[in-house]
Structures are given as C-alpha cells and as structure tokens.
Amino acid sequence: MEIINFFIDFILHVDTRLGSIIAEHGAYVYPILFTIIFCETGLVVTPFLPGDSLLFAAGSFAALGSMDLFTLMLLLTAAAICGDNTNYWIGRKIGPGIFRSEKNILFRRDYLDKTQRYYGIHGGKTVLFARFMPIFRTFVPFVAGVGRMEYSRFLPYSVSGSILWVNGFVLAGYFFGSLPFVRQRFTLVIFGIILISMFPMLLHGFRTFRARLRKKALENE
Q1: How far apart are CA 151 and CA 87, in angstroms?
Q2: What predicted TM-score, i.e. pTM, was given to this entire model?
Q3: Taking CA 75 as the corner, what is the angle to CA 185 and CA 41, rounded to the nearest 5 degrees?
Q4: Using one digit for the tens of pLDDT, what is the confidence trace for 84-132?
Q5: Is the Cα dihedral 147, 150, 153, 157 positive or negative?
Q6: Shortest CA distance to 143 belongs to which of 171, 170, 116, 104?
Q7: For residues 155 and 81, what is the distance between their CA atoms, to the nearest angstrom?
Q8: How far apart are alpha carbons 138 and 128 in whole angstroms?
Q9: Can you say whether the dihedral through the CA atoms of 87, 138, 77, 13 is positive or negative?
Q10: Which of 12, 146, 190, 217 could form a disulfide with 95 if both were Cys (CB 3.0 to 4.6 A apart)?
Q11: Distance from the first to the final alpha carbon of the chain
Q12: Half-sphere exposure of 202 toward its Cβ, with a 13 Å CA cutoff?
C-alpha cells in the first residue's frame, strides 16, 4: 500500500518530485527520466509509472533552464521507442508458448488466433493511438508481439507514435508549464492531463458497457 501511495503522490506532485531529483542529482536526471519512460512503455508490469504528466513537467523545467530541451526530447523519444520495441519482442518470444492450451481460461489458443487476425487488420492504428492512452500504451506493444504483427509494420507506427507523444507533451510543458497561472495550479493541471489522457479509454469502456446492456435487453425481450 505504501508503494501505491508513493506513486500516486509522485504523479500528482510530479513538478515537486522532479525538481528535487534535478536539485539532488543534476545531469543524472536524464538517465533517470530515460529509465522511467522506458519502463512505463517497455515492461508490462509497470503501467503505473508516470508518462504524460512526467513529460509535461520535464518540458516545464526545460523552459526554466533546468534541462536542455533538445537533449530531453531526443533522449525520451529514444526511451519510448526502445521500450515499445522491447515490449514487442518480449510478447513475440513468450506469447505463442503461453497460448498453447485450448482449455486454459486466460490463455486459450483461440484468443491468440483472434489477436493475430485483429493486429493483421487494425494493428497499425492501434499501436499509434495507444501511445496517447495510459496503461494501453504499456500493453499494446506486448500484445502486438504476441499477435505476431509484422515487425516491418509495427516499427514505423511505433516510431511515429513515440515521436508525437514525447515531443507533443514536452513542448506543451515547455510553452505552457512555466506560465505563472499553470505553475500556481500545477497539481490541478497534472490531474487534468491524466483525465484527458484516460478519456478515450473511459469512453471506450462506457460504449462497451452500454452495448452489452443493449444486447442483454434485446435478449430478454
């Protein structure tokens, strides 16, 4: 429970925490940020790490001169691409071995077949758009690997999504994060960024839930 509280506090007060890291570790902040973005994207077990809010906060510190903007964008884009591709290859290597049984409730062979068909048709746009959705961006590359999406197709969408995501949020932080109005309400702004980032996921969940209710109502008629 303590570690969950720590991460919630870090995400909501990312400006304060990042400021402390810069003050204590100086230039070592770059590899620290690289590691966080890499893990948030590249390891299935760490979807809880801050992504959007951390990039925005990093951009705001770059505007204040605490970090170099171009180094930040280049390094964190590389972290996102490396994480995406690591996650893809983990899924590609271990996925087929997990989905062998026809009886396993969670890892049935037909689930793998459906995943492969889905990524054969919709894989590109899924990889691209998932980059802007917390949690989804951690699992989608892994599932793309499990579903044997062609790597030559996966890579350009992964690179494009990473460039747009990292540079978009870092530049937003750079141009708006240092404004007095934003800095005075930074926690509220971060909370807003989290809600906006999660909106597509919540909307999809609501539509799925509504469709199921409709289907159930039709079956009961």
Answers
A1: 12
A2: 0.78
A3: 75
A4: 999 999 988 887 666 655 555 545 555 555 666 666 666 788 888 888 8
A5: positive
A6: 116
A7: 9
A8: 12
A9: negative
A10: 146
A11: 46
A12: 6
